[in-house]
Design goal:
Blueprint lengths: L1 H24 L8 H4 L3 E17 L12 E18 L4 E25 L5 E26 L4 E25 L11 E8 L6 E11 L1 E2 L6 E11 L10 E14 L10 H10 L13 E9 L5 E2 L4 E12 L4 E3 L32 H5 L2 H11 L5 E5 L12 H17 L6 E5 L12 H7 L1 E6 L8 E11 L2 E9 L6 E8 L2 E9 L6 E4 L13 E9 L5 E3 L3 E8 L1 H7 L4 E8 L11 H13 L5 E6 L7 H19 L5 E4 L12 H7 L2 E8 L2
Parallel strand pairs: 13-25, 13-26, 15-16, 27-28
Antiparallel strand pairs: 1-2, 1-10, 2-3, 3-4, 4-5, 5-6, 5-7, 7-9, 8-9, 9-10, 11-12, 11-19, 13-18, 14-17, 15-17, 19-22, 20-21, 20-23, 23-24, 23-25, 26-29, 27-29
């Protein structure tokens, strides 16, 4: 029997290795998107169980049996239940299960004994001892999973259960001689069945295993997952009896990602309904809570401001916006994202870089391929190299994504802008030469890109324009939403509007944050001249869909335009704004492109100018670390400028320049801005 059990254990080990090798060799149809990877899954599972029982006892407590010793056996069973899988991060997950299990075992033992027959002769008698045990249990099984890939994961955890039933059937049968009987006159004896009174109610064991996710739809929200699990228990099934069981389970789990609970109204409909909804009165019948929101100004360095309104002043300005020479792609995709502005062939002839007057740096960036196309058209001797890159988590079965991405960019410049294909070389690689942190979702998105370099620096140089800069005082607004009393809600939205036109929204599910910050310049293009008030309100939806608005409040706005200054003859100044990006991830050294911008700035600074140098970071990393990194970046630029009386500030990720939801917005946040104020009189 022990030999048989050893063979079964070796079989289980071989099955486990085969499952791992098979899963590693099966490419997933489409790798999971970063959003899906972050979402929990629920479902059910069913396992067939092979129980390997090892024992050393002759009888159950208080159950007569003449067996010399039961040494073990095997039996089949099943486990089925529900499960909940939630990611901890991109590498680890938590797998929580609750299940019902039923399993049995057949143990037999044969014995040869000499017996005396009725005629006085002797012979050997063969006696078969049989014991069948059946068990049912309810269990919980929390496990931690380690992801070897998006689809393959290892499991380790604990099974803890309660045996709700345990029964046995027992008999002794005289096999030989055929004409013999026991002393009872029968060929069987000790035939008995019933409950195992001394069963160990606690079922406790260590579970190890592996699982592989097979997507059932293109959205990868439903999975069928073959799994192999091995549960080892050091505890006896029956008290005071040496009887242990190990389970090999093979089965399937069916899971799905629950759909997001979306608001039935879009933000414009929600805003319209909220403005027409009467304000609830606290403690009124049927009123679960009331909403409230307040606002305070915040300065560039994140401190609260005493200003009671918003002041806008216009200045003549030279604006320098560096061009990030990267095109980012969605996971497993080689198609240009819709956020990149693409032209038709008949629009190319009228395209002009002079139209970039007063455009934000991020808006300018999304015209990047057209800017490069225009510049290459005007510089016929210039050439570029287009290098496609991928991140480590992308589906390797989707073809050569690096090459496809490079070809996509080249094809746009050739087909739309008419650039000779010989002027555009394509290269491919895995991770970029200077990758972002590939263990984080943001870093992975930043590594899925095409990099563009040129023999002519002017092709990817900064975009410069003479703008009218609008300076906002205070720099930002801090909204502080709340409900009274504090209870769970479905969602909340902060609306910022001008004359019933939405300027900015902040939206999320429960809980309501203590505050949300808005850098006003982000939406400067949506605040028209002549604005006198900006309105804001909080709209909360409860679990039943009821809409609970706050009072619609106002921020008074005052504005001083260039025309106002000319009419009054007052003293004015120019405010030039220079942005330097291309700081590598987690670095503060100036790139060659940024050094060229610094040299240009240095030549423009007059002796009577006031210079302010402000460093920023993106959202990656700890707050205190980002603060130091932003200071290092600002000091590096100050040193390169050689300006001794400059104001040098590091702001880290406080009041970020952009919302950091896209790769390019994070790159443009790894910046130093140089503000040069020069009096005109």
């Amino acid at each position: 029997m022990y030999k048989t059990m050893n063979q079964l254990q070796r079989l289980a080990q071989n099955c486990f290795v085969i499952l791992l090798l098979t899963c590693c060799s099966i490419p997933s149809a489409v790798a999971q998107s970063s959003d899906i990877l972050k979402k929990p899954r629920i479902g059910g599972f069913g396992n067939v169980s092979l129980g390997m029982h090892g024992s050393s006892f002759s009888q159950l407590p208080d159950v007569p049996n003449c067996c010399p010793e039961f040494t073990g056996g095997t039996g089949l069973g099943f486990f089925a239940g529900i499960l909940y899988i939630t990611p901890i991060n991109t590498t680890w997950l938590l797998d929580m299960r609750m299940h019902y299990g039923s399993y049995s075992v057949d143990m037999t033992k044969s014995q040869i004994l000499p017996v005396v027959l009725a005629d006085g002769s002797t012979t050997n008698a063969e006696i078969n001892y049989a014991l069948t045990g059946s068990f049912t249990q309810m269990s919980v099984e929390p496990m931690v999973g380690y992801k070897l890939s998006d689809d393959l994961s290892l499991r380790a955890g604990i099974m803890a259960g309660y045996r709700v039933a345990a029964t046995y059937d027992q008999s002794e049968t005289l096999v030989q001689p055929l004409n013999g009987t026991f002393e009872t006159g029968r060929r069987t004896r000790n035939v008995v069945s019933g409950d195992i009174a001394a069963v160990n109610a606690l079922a406790l064991g260590l579970t190890l295993g592996a699982s592989y996710d097979l997507p059932l739809n293109t959205d990868r929200t439903m999975f069928l997952s073959p799994e192999l699990l091995f549960t080892i228990s050091p505890f006896d099934l029956v008290n005071d009896v040496s009887w242990k069981v190990q389970h090999i389970r093979f089965g399937l789990a069916l899971t799905f990602v629950p759909p997001d609970v979306e608001d039935s109204l879009d933000e414009y409909q929600l805003y319209d309904v909220a403005r027409r909804t009467p304000l609830p009165t606290k403690d009124a019948p049927g009123v679960a809570f009331v909403s409230n929101i307040t606002v305070t100004g915040i300065t560039e360095d994140g401190r609260t401001s005493s200003s009671q309104g918003l002041r806008i002043e216009e200045f003549a300005s030279t604006r320098v916006r560096p061009l990030l020479p990267y095109v980012f792609f969605d996971k497993n995709s080689a198609a240009l994202a819709t956020r990149y502005h693409q032209l038709s062939q008949d629009q190319v002839d009228n395209y002009s870089l002079e139209n970039f007057y007063n455009l934000d740096a991020l808006v300018t960036y999304r015209q990047m391929l057209n800017i490069i196309g225009k510049r290459m058209s005007e510089s016929p001797n210039a050439s570029i190299v287009v290098t496609g890159c991928t991140d480590d988590t992308e589906d390797k079965s989707a073809g050569n994504l690096s090459q496809q991405r490079a070809i996509t960019v080249k094809s746009y410049l050739v087909n739309t802008w008419g650039i000779n294909a010989d002027r555009i070389a394509t290269e491919m690689r895995g991770l970029p030469a200077a990758p972002s942190k590939s263990t984080e979702t943001d870093g992975q998105a930043e590594n899925r890109r095409v990099e563009i370099s040129s023999s002519d620096p002017s092709i990817i140089s900064s975009v410069t324009s003479l703008d009218t800069m609008r300076v906002f005082e205070p720099t930002g607004m801090r909204f502080m939403p709340s409900i009274d009393p504090q209870i769970p809600i479905s969602s909340w939205t902060v609306f910022v509007s001008e004359d019933e036109r939405i300027i900015r929204t902040f939206h999320d599910a429960d809980p309501i944050p203590a505050s949300v910050d808005w850098r006003v310049a982000e939406q400067s293009g949506f605040i028209p001249r002549g604005t006198r008030n900006i309105e804001y309100m909080l709209v909360v939806q409860d679990s039943t869909g009821n809409i609970v608005p706050s009072e619609n409040k106002t921020i008074p706005v005052s504005e001083i335009t260039l025309e106002d200054k000319k009419r009054s003859g007052g003293t004015d100044k120019t405010v030039d704004r220079y942005s330097l990006i291309l700081f590598a991830f987690d670095k503060s050294e100036l790139s060659s492109e940024s050094q060229a911008i610094v040299s240009n700035i240095k030549s423009r600074i007059k002796t009577n100018a006031q210079v302010k140098i402000v460093g920023y970071t993106d959202r990656s990393g700890a707050d205190d670390y980002n603060q130091k990194l932003s200071e290092q970046r600002a000091k590096a630029v100050a040193s390169a400028l050689g300006v001794t009386n400059a104001t040098i500030v590091g702001l880290g990720e406080r009041l970020p320049l952009y919302d950091n939801t896209t790769p390019e917005s994070r790159f443009y946040s790894r910046t130093v801005e140089v503000m040069v104020e020069t009096p005109l009189r």
